[in-house]
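Section 5: illustrative case.
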């Protein structure tokens, strides 16, 4: 009989992660996740990668996002339901798991709703540091909903953006964003009346809209030489933000091409449309931006490796801070070949039968 081996899984609840971010500070969390993403993208070939598994419905999508290296397996469960705000629910909700590859044992279970917003913003900053012109200081932020503050703060803290030009079809969203960013040192916000007004003079344009539709938030006439477009909102079939000609006129960079061709803005274009995976730029295998006048597009859909990086950050930060709680997700067995014993030990009726 095998020796008794108690096992527990670290659980980080939503309140735990909120407290963790508050203790470390948003800037340090963004930096930490961005550093992990950059490091993990440099290990691109070490990961077993696959496009996420999606279950689409009329009102949204539910997805599983798995990835693993030789030591650690991770997955994220995430949804995207634009109508959720009618019911008091977030558009995006998520949780994630880290597991030990050698045993399959779940090491950590964590909320990822707040964390997804942080990792998405950190990913945007990692891409922009590689693709935007050096010295970019003004960003247009189109779509001022739940993810917008995180995008704004990532670009401010990690790239030095000091002016945000804001537009949303719902003026209340822009008001909310400005209120939440009020007091952020060195960051000025300007509310605009249209997308065209917002992008005027912007070095970087971030689109982060939620509607599940083939929209054209950004059109070719709005492009300017040297602009970097960070397209965050198009992330499933039938949901886009950029006019196809924006893509045709730009250098386009993606996370994982097999997934982006299904879900990203490039779903509008032929399967052989040329794109570059971002890891190639970070690893020095591709030059990235062709010149100061080039227009670059990061067609971001969110990839499992970014969640792997974020979960690693949460695990390490929680360990350092002594946060989270152990949970018995796996039954504790005296004999690992006798699962039925856990019922015998708890049930008088089963003990009688035995």
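Designed sequence:
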């Amino acid at each position: 009989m095998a020796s008794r081996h108690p096992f527990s899984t670290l659980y980080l609840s939503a309140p735990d992660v909120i407290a963790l971010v508050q203790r470390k500070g948003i800037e340090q969390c963004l930096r930490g996740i961005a550093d992990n993403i950059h490091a993990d993208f440099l290990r691109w070939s070490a990961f077993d990668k696959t496009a996420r598994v999606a279950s689409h419905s009329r009102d949204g999508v539910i997805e599983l996002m798995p990835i693993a290296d030789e030591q650690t397996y991770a997955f994220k469960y995430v949804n995207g339901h634009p109508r959720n705000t009618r019911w008091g629910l977030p558009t995006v909700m998520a949780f994630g798991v880290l597991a030990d590859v050698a045993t399959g044992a779940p090491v950590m279970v964590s909320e990822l709703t707040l964390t997804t917003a942080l990792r998405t913003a950190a990913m945007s900053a990692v891409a922009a540091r590689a693709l935007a012109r050096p010295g970019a200081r003004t960003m247009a932020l189109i779509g001022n909903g739940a993810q917008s503050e995180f995008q704004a703060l990532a670009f401010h803290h990690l790239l030095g953006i000091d002016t945000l030009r804001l537009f949303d079809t719902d003026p209340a969203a822009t008001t909310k964003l400005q209120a939440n960013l009020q007091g952020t040192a060195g960051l000025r916000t300007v509310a605009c009346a249209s997308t065209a007004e917002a992008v005027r003079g912007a070095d970087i344009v971030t689109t982060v809209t939620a509607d599940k539709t083939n929209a054209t938030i950004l059109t070719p006439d709005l492009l300017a030489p040297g602009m970097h477009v960070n397209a965050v909102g198009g992330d499933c079939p039938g949901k886009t933000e950029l006019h196809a000609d924006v893509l045709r006129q730009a250098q386009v960079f993606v996370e994982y091409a097999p997934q982006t061709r299904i879900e990203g803005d490039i779903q509008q274009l032929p399967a052989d449309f040329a794109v570059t995976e971002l890891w190639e730029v970070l690893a020095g295998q591709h030059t990235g931006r062709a010149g100061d006048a080039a227009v670059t597009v990061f067609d971001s859909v969110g990839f499992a490796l970014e969640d792997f990086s974020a979960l690693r950050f949460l695990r390490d930060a929680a360990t350092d801070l002594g946060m989270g709680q152990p949970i018995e997700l796996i039954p504790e067995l005296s004999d690992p070949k006798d699962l039925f014993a856990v019922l015998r030990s708890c049930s008088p009726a089963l003990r009688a039968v035995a």
